[in-house]
């Protein structure tokens, strides 16, 4: 079985820590390891280093190699231009389809946390065995929702469809991306929905065939690249043709068009969290609602439900009567915001483009 970890995003919702030069997946937001390192290491030893592939931007290859020295260089697929997730998935599925067309592969993301690692790996291996037998199918791995999130995608779960080893699979009914508050509450209490993590197991050949059917522009461009007869020619064609890819999400390119009869869902509590934004990181790390989460030299008094991260060893942050706040201190930026206002951070950073503050993005 193969695994692909996508590690190419910038992550403006975790600004000012996450920047273009060093995105969130490479930063130490949890302990002394990056979420990329945690994502790769949690696959071991069930996956060998040769079975793990990393999809990232061309400018981040050295960071990937520094943080994951055990991953072979040829397993790092470097995108020379930013073209959203659809082209990135299409390219690597085409690449793997040439070499391991019918071997199960799991798609993962580099900025997530999973607390129940052994259960997570058991599900992966069970689902991999199911896909190896069925082949022309896709199995989504979802998280039982902990609350009515408006910031995540949701999957509607159908009836029980199969069982493989210790893992139950249900039929797939529908996607819903970022519902409004009322709808999210309905989903949460219905028990018929799970969070969509973007994790799925299939075979490279099947996913690539979906691009051929539903997204011909991505497929035809990928064909130009993977037709290469050597690694040197591959890199040359990648540089030449990848920029021709349309900018489109994987959901829009393929997933919204799949035959639901070939799709299944695993709905489990694997202790998953998306730490792509500060309030999500806090929720992932707190043991109880209202806990303070701190990093670095921080002293809080009479404070609650706040996250305070200090990356400046020369300075101490002292907070008194802080409530529901985000405070992030880096070498050149101090961010102070209400947790409820975290969505505005992305807009602020985007507004820096073309100004003297662009260097801070």
From TrEMBL:
Residues 2-286 form the Nucleotidyl transferase domain. Coiled coil: none annotated. InterPro entries: ManC/GMP-like_b-helix, Mannose-6P_isomerase_type2, NTP_transferase_dom, Nucleotide-diphossugar_trans. It holds the Pfam family ManC_GMP_beta-helix. Signal peptide: none annotated. Residues 302-350 form the MannoseP isomerase/GMP-like beta-helix domain. It comes from the Bacteria. GO terms for molecular function: mannose-1-phosphate guanylyltransferase (GTP) activity. GO terms for biological process: GDP-mannose biosynthetic process. This is Uncharacterized protein. It comes from Candidatus Roizmanbacteria bacterium CG_4_10_14_0_2_um_filter_39_13. The lineage of its organism: Bacteria, Candidatus Roizmaniibacteriota.
